[in-house]
């Protein structure tokens, strides 16, 4: 084991004896290379003597006691406001358990506990009593799992010397006022809108003043953008008191009155909504404010009912703000934005999206310089208590695998809650690493305010029902401290109630908002007009040459060099541009046009099928080189990252990135199309429906490899049918192409409409075998002019056509190949490039032109219950004008395809032959 690994190893005894022995060897070489506790221990072990004549065995016991307090003190901490947990078989945490007397401890100087405490305490006993208060109070710390020794020591030093802030009288009163507004809002809603769902924050009310402190600390550190993600519990309170959504707007939503009548006229608050809408506790907003000392933008991301699913979206939004996309390469400043992720205690360990999201935290393409996680721990998930919902001691334990500091804090100790925010923000700024706060509280009511929780959680709710709310607890504390009087405390509460009552009275209860039509905005209904996307030959040729020019001394893999050199052929001889080449030419022209491109996915740098080669490796040094970062004329950046083996979190991240930076061509590529199954909730709840629900737009592009190549069920279908089932209201484009020039034009069209009212996502079934098929590859001339073609039809003699076949993607090329070999003027093949929105006008024009045709056949590779058939059949019936509409493809199956390659060939051949038979 090398020295770095030794230094980064956690300090533990017993099971890690091997580490301890190697540390001893390191100590013998350089005593200063190990921590001060280890220096003291090894000094005793090597000499048998202790300064001052203390017994060596006693000193070892003292060191073990100190280590236990730091490591396990949280187990005895006062971190539960009620329904306190009891532990058995606790580690030794008292001097008596180590046979240490007061005299033993008083005989040792405080520096044996910590050199940082030497000047503050006269002896080890006083210093250890200090540690008891620090580690076993209303804040519990966990950091022994952290491998980085610098981070671990920084935390110990801060916690033991600076851990608690001395609040001024004014700060205490402001905290009480904040809590009064939080509780006052909830109580007012509860009283005046009986039975209305709001998913109350009560029990973890401290969250709001904690967020206020986060934003203030961000302002102090010149962080001008804060991105917040949270589920529905407490969201209305955060909207009201952090984003300053007026009480009138919130109350109007409960009354079904148009809330936008009360939107601030100064433009400081932006709240979008879609035409079909969503429940109020899923909505978000953006606030521009100087409330915390500098100009800041605070965003609360919209979130569906899928709890934690918004976490990677917020991370992507944060990274988008941090990135600068000027020039060929993007650059990141982690202090441009801060991500704050608010989790539920049952959902944090229960939903895999959190594991995936935390795994992004230190990866170059996804890091955000340290996110702040706050778990609003109400000790129960719907009705399930912790012993039925997780296998860990704390909800936070899953974060230990990612080296994140963890702090548990009693939600009824508001000053402690603010202290941990100060610690978390200082740690983030020092190390750019995530930090986890477990805000341990309770839930005042049931899962929603109509639920009776005592049915399933009787013991907990016996305590909840008699437990005073936090503003009463803290108000009485301030009265006891002489900060204010009873009358002054009560006046604060009355003022809040009157403030909300005044807002309520300002709403005309008779102005009900009921839009049953829910019509799309005009720009959405119009769709995307066609646009010329050709690029002049000279520009393409120079771009191509730039991509084939490498730095002096850089040597790509020799076999790859020959492959890449063939990309000159379309410009110097009669060569064709294949799929990967067309894509890179498109991306190059897009960044030259000023739109940054960000492409991520598993192995996307090379491409799953070795087709892209956007990033090259020197075969001698391993050095990486990205040609698109060095082309001439680029006015925006190109970024490509091999993603972790994750779909849900990465798709969510890229969606968030594009929502925040609508000018960016944000592309996610699945390794195989069916891998997108793991991110289905992102397609269902965000990408396909966010505009209709929330007025949240994106132009994200999805590349999903799809085609039946005999590779079995999981490597054949990208589940085209799912995207078509979700297709409505021009919500996205779904395409399956058969031409590299059409791919080039479609990518450029997608980029053209970014950051406009016509922007929408693109779902593309990308090829596998067609990547190198010469029938798909096209000459340069098709790239220099024209536009995307939603249908492709070769020349035909309209009077001779008896049968029209419509097909997309690989099966269309299979049909095309057979017709090239065996021409048949009686069959007309329409290659349907765009499935949604269906180009009905183009199809209708062709069908009207071939009046002698008696049959329209739709050909697909997928089983009949999958693919595009059920989507397109009703459309074709309307267009057929009495002609027979016939299906050609696999029979209905529960699986996507057969598993045997030879069987596949026979089935595929039968589909083609049946379709081509008149």
From TrEMBL:
Pfam families membership: E1_dh, OxoGdeHyase_C, Transket_pyr
One term under GO cellular component: cytosol
Cofactor(s) the protein needs: thiamine diphosphate
Alphabetical keyword list: Glycolysis, Oxidoreductase, Thiamine pyrophosphate
Transketolase-like pyrimidine-binding domain: residues covered: 577-773
EC number: 1.2.4.2
Keyword Oxidoreductase part of the UniProt annotation: yes
Gene Ontology biological-process entries: glycolytic process; tricarboxylic acid cycle
Swiss-Prot/TrEMBL catalytic activity: N(6)-[(R)-lipoyl]-L-lysyl-[protein] + 2-oxoglutarate + H(+) = N(6)-[(R)-S(8)-succinyldihydrolipoyl]-L-lysyl-[protein] + CO2
Entry-linked InterPro entries: 2oxoglutarate_DH_E1, DH_E1, KGD_C_sf, ODO-1/KGD_C, THDP-binding, Transketolase-like_Pyr-bd
Domain of life, source organism: Bacteria
GO molecular function: oxoglutarate dehydrogenase (succinyl-transferring) activity; thiamine pyrophosphate binding
Stored NCBIfam families: 2oxo_dh_E1 (TIGR00239), PRK09404.1 (NF006914), PRK12270.1 (NF008907)
Protein name: oxoglutarate dehydrogenase (succinyl-transferring)
Organism: Macrococcus carouselicus
